[in-house]
Structures
1.
Amino acid sequence: MDEEKNKTPDQAVTRRDFLVSGAMATSLAAVGVVAGSFGWQFVYPAAAKIPTVQVLATSLSKLPPGTRKVMKLGGNEVVLMNTNGTVRAISTVCTHLGCRAAWEEGRQQFVCPCHTGIFDVNGKVVSGPQPRALDEFAVEIKSGNVYVAVPQKEGAG
């Protein structure tokens, strides 16, 4: 308490100084938040939205339960599989370097020849250098036909 008595009027913090300091601190915090949000976009950019096109793959009668077919749809190679009435379309492009992963019926796996990457029947990574699972495309059944939404590629028909 003796220290407060010894302060000169020039050393005391006025209400105005306190409010100015508070406003400056608040402004700096707001600038930091805005700058951080812009900087975050460079560290973690939004994924590009790739346009898709819905392609008629086959009739459902030609893909009975328990069967698989490798097809080229809109310039994309996919494996269509009917598992207990659920039709799925999985890309054969390896997520490591873009090599073609082949479906091996005997092993019930996708195998990439470039670095012996292995994916299970659902396209999930089993072993190898690939960073993520194989891409899966949306499938729609309309009027007994199987349609697959694949990435649109220029010049592919």
2.
Amino acid sequence: MLRNIASLLQPVTEFDATNTRILRELSRNARLPNIELAERVGLSPSACLRRVQELERRGLIRGYRAMLAPEARGGGFTAYVTIGLNEHTKAAQLAFERAMAASPHVRECHNVTGAIEYLLRVEVPDIAAYKHFHAETLGTLPQVTAITTFVVMDSPKDERA
């Protein structure tokens, strides 16, 4: 994935193999001490720190965060939900996006192409809580015309950070 990002960013900024290695290492462990990061990517600690700071300044590193277990946020039941809107207007999109931003159960909301307009990642404690979210949040929005739920049974690979 980082290799694809590097190729997309090359025309915009000087992006070399060392920057790619820095991003790969930080995506694996953002708490890696600079001295260890420098050793892994083959730089002096001061040169490595300058590169990391430049990647941050240019917006290629947007931030650092902890990966929390869904249970720590009151989740335990995860579903991906596709949403179709009945109107393809900016007003309908903005209204839907505001409602999703206000919902603590919606962990991700993506406007996508294809047969539907949105893809959500929803985390709730259990199926009963999801049923409530489905009926009382999604089901009450006038612009929503289609809802399809995909229940996550397991995540053998998850690189979200």
3.
Amino acid sequence: MISSILIIAFSIVLLVYWFRYTCLLILRTRTAVDYAPVVVTANNLQFLHVQDLIREAEAATLDPLRKSLDRDYGLLTYLMKHTAGFHVGGITVEQRMLLLDFKLMQIWYGATRRLAVHQARAALDEMSNILGHLANAIGERAASISRA
């Protein structure tokens, strides 16, 4: 009985570690052309500006930055669901993982924003990086459709 519980607990820990490591590897991947600034400009997104503000923001000013990231997340997910290129190719497994990671970082931010401001900043930074990756994917799909 105890050995089964230990195996299950160890398996869960390894699953969480794999998920986090994979998400961080996806976020480190860069494409030859960065389409995110084009998508940001076309859709009035704020996450690039938020990335600059996170490092110097006081603890009291982190909540408006999170709200801005949440708004951008809503807009980007809407674009992913309603853009023609995503209907053809669909949302990839990596993008689904990043969408889940964004939600987990929202929870982590909520848990750490008062007690561990550094961890809250790291969560916001990762959330903005996820948005950058998703915006780049949207721009990449739009560019490939326009070339076809």
